[in-house]
């Protein structure tokens, strides 16, 4: 395996790369030795240089993590990152049956290891602490990589891949908190001091082409309180041996961590299904599934439909991800870029039209094509075609009642 080629492939062509990874031998030790140690090393070394040698400043005050503490952070962070990937792989493997997938530790490890590529490489922005927030965007793209790999690696049905990914994200957040907490022990508490700084009052808006996510700082405080209360309830239930109450409290805590409901109530599956026609671009609808899945205090609604004619097949997926702003940011991370990539066989484009972001991926021979659109209300539309060229997929997207889907109003 060529490291550079694999990194480029998983970042630029994840859907085409996951089947290749799935067919490779399961070799956890080899992945650590030939892949993860390099990516984790980049992130750890960049953080040391940025925070100990260059330093960061705010309001005229310049701060550097002491050299010895920085070196300790670098080593500990490197080791804990490698450990965290294995722990998340264990979690992914354990979760698979609950979402209709198959347990396979080797494939679970490959899912997490390669899915983490963008986030690990994003650590290079720590070279300049002022740009460290860009690492967050890279981490959001890693969530998308995991989402595309879940159906291939863990055999989770596509309709449940979103829920699986969301639960895994929560576990990743918890693991990251552990890493930062342990790391702070070696930096004289500096990390915790920085993390404890008061947030500015008011709302913070993050704009993604075609949508805008507003994060209310008061809601963040409320979510933290809910997590604390749910944690106490879970501990009390466990002490009493009440597993049902403990499970309910755990679900509430996970939901609070993901911001469940902060964007409003999820749309009902039948509300989404109403905008999926019986015919689409000259094709008859041959199958449709509308579903709502709940996991760990989070609810996801989706509609998947299939259209066929004698020449080809088109699949339309309509998913509601707007009830959780954090998930909406993650799934729409691609929309923050403008991309134009072309090879001898394939084309990929991310572009904006009338303020909405579109993503297209297709083969020039017309054998397959995909197109995605995220609406401002948190509805994600994905159209893919087999033996259908990109013009056919565009026609199918244009034939959908996008205006109707955009008009859906989410209840608070």
UniProtKB/TrEMBL annotation:
**Coiled coil: which residue ranges?**
213-240
Q: Does the keyword Transmembrane apply?
A: yes
State the superkingdom: Bacteria
Cellular localization per UniProt: Membrane
Pinpoint the Yip1 domain residues.
Answer: 10-177
Question: Which InterPro entries does this UniProt record tie to the protein?
Answer: Yip1_dom
Q: For this UniProt record, give its keywords in alphabetical order, as a comma-separated list.
A: Coiled coil, Membrane, Transmembrane, Transmembrane helix
Name of the protein: Yip1 family protein
| Organism of origin | Hydrogenophaga luteola
Q: Highest lineage ranks of the organism?
A: Bacteria, Pseudomonadati, Pseudomonadota, Betaproteobacteria, Burkholderiales
């Amino acid at each position: 395996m060529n490291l550079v080629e694999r990194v480029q492939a998983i970042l630029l062509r994840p859907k085409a790369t996951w089947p290749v990874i799935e067919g490779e031998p399961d070799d956890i030790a080899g992945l650590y030795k030939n892949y993860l140690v390099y990516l984790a090393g980049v992130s750890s070394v960049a953080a040391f240089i940025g925070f100990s040698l260059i330093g960061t400043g705010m309001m005229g005050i310049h701060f550097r993590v002491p050299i010895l503490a920085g070196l300790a952070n670098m080593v500990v962070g490197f080791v804990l990152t490698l450990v965290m990937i294995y722990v998340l792989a264990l979690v992914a493997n354990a979760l698979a049956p609950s979402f209709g997938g198959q347990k396979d530790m080797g494939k679970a490890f490959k899912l997490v290891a390669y899915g983490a590529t963008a986030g690990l490489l994003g650590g290079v922005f720590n070279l300049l602490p002022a740009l460290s927030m860009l690492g967050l965007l890279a981490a959001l793209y890693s969530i998308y990589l995991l989402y595309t790999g879940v159906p291939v690696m863990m055999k989770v049905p596509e309709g449940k891949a979103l829920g699986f990914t969301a639960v895994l994200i929560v576990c990743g957040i918890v693991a990251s908190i552990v890493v930062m907490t342990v790391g702070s022990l070696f930096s004289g508490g500096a990390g915790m001091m920085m993390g404890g700084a008061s947030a500015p009052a008011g709302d913070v808006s993050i704009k993604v082409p075609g949508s805008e996510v507003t994060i209310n700082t008061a809601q963040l405080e409320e979510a933290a309180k809910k997590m604390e209360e749910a944690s106490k309830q879970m501990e009390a239930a466990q002490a009493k041996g009440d597993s049902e109450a403990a499970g309910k409290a755990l679900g509430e805590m996970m939901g609070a961590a993901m911001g469940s409901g902060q964007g409003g109530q999820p749309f009902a599956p039948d509300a989404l299904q109403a905008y999926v026609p019986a015919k689409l671009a000259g094709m008859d609808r041959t199958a449709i599934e509308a579903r709502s899945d709940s996991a760990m205090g989070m609810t996801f609604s989706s509609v998947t439909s299939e259209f066929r004619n004698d020449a080809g097949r088109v699949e339309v997926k309509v998913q509601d991800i707007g009830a959780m702003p954090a998930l909406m940011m993650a799934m729409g991370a691609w929309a923050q870029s403008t991309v134009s990539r072309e090879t001898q066989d394939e084309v990929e484009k991310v572009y904006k039209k009338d303020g909405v972001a579109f993503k297209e991926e297709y083969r020039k021979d017309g054998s397959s094509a995909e197109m995605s659109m995220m609406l401002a209300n948190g509805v994600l539309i994905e159209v893919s075609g087999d033996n259908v060229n990109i013009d056919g997929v565009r026609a199918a997207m244009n034939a959908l009642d996008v205006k109707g889907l955009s008009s859906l109003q989410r209840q608070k």
